[in-house]
Here is the input.
Amino acid sequence: MIIDCHTHIFPDEVREKRESFCMRDSGFSSLYQNPKARIVGAEELIASMDESGIDQSVICGFPWTEPGLCSFHNQYLIESASRYPGRLIVFILLLFSDPEWSALELDRGIKNGVRGVGEVAFYHREMTPRDIESMGPVFRVMEQGRIPLLLHTNELLGHAYPGKGTTPLEIFYRFALAFPSLPILLGHWGGGLPFYELMPEVAAAMRHVYYDTAASPFLYSKKIYRIVGEIVGADRILFGSDFPLVRPQRYFQEIEESGLSIEDRRKILGLNVLRLLQSE
Here is the structure.
């Protein structure tokens, strides 16, 4: 089974009125004001999955700064999953700036079959310890229910690109320390955080942290699969395409050429996220 743990789909209204949504949300504008930046719906994702041989995909929305927009997008994700039973796994958006609303939205989502939260991202400011502390009650509910949280991370070095955040990796480490049993998925190889797991105390704190491969062809050499596999183990690497940013076939080729064993490749391509979701 192949499961893509990181994709994004949008309601028709967002795709048809891109400019108006860019005016409402600066983070959305930074990523999608360029008309060449692809925005797709559930139908396009399913078509790509069928073409690529992907059995299931985790669907995420966008980290809007307004509760109303988050609810609107979350509802689209829930409805999309109901139209394609067994194919789409819903991760909803919560607002770190509004813990009370987030608690209610999480409860609503769980009652509607939501399996996780994310991709949470901070595009125009850093995530801070205060953000983590204020959301503590929500994260403890998620921790108790083994509900995964997908966080956007990125490397702080190298070339600039739309959506590149400035949150120090130390914050994600502190997050893992604060909620040691919460399943945390760090997008985009954790921004390089897995390399710090060569430090024993960091490795101990990251036992329930997973790293996805989203945007890997744009960021790292294909050697990263083998190297991170040696450091943290293939059990904590998850295939995520960030579709429609990158086509899945590019990942399949890199994983095939990574030098990893067939069993490790099977884990990365689906078994790991399947095990994670079944442990909820």
User: Anything to note?
Assistant: The beta strands are 3-8, 56-60, 88-92, 116-120, 149-151, 184-186, 209-212, 237-238.
